[in-house]
Amino acid sequence: MKQTTTVLTEIIAHILGRKYWANIIHTRGTGKCEISSFIFTSKDAALRHRQDLEETMSYKFVETVAFRSRHDYTNLTTYVR
Q1: What confidence tens digit (pLDDT) does each residue in 2-38 have?
Q2: Helix (H) or strand (E) holding 25
Q3: Is residue 59 part of a domain?
Q4: Which of 8, 47, 48, 73 has the fewest CB atoms found within 10 Å of its own CB?
């Protein structure tokens, strides 16, 4: 989905950064919790990834975290369900 931006949203993105989401996962059978290697541009996409994680035997979903970054990750190819 192509996002439209305005001058105001670009100024805010430059000052505060763009908002992204990532999932924290627990590798079953170990004591390791780590951030998934996927960065999501919407919370809905992160939640879809969470649902897919619940179906695996290897990982257990822990938490979805939001963060801001001045880097633009919107053009990267990320997790596709």
Answers
A1: 567 789 988 988 899 999 999 999 998 999 999 988 9
A2: strand 18-27
A3: yes
A4: 8
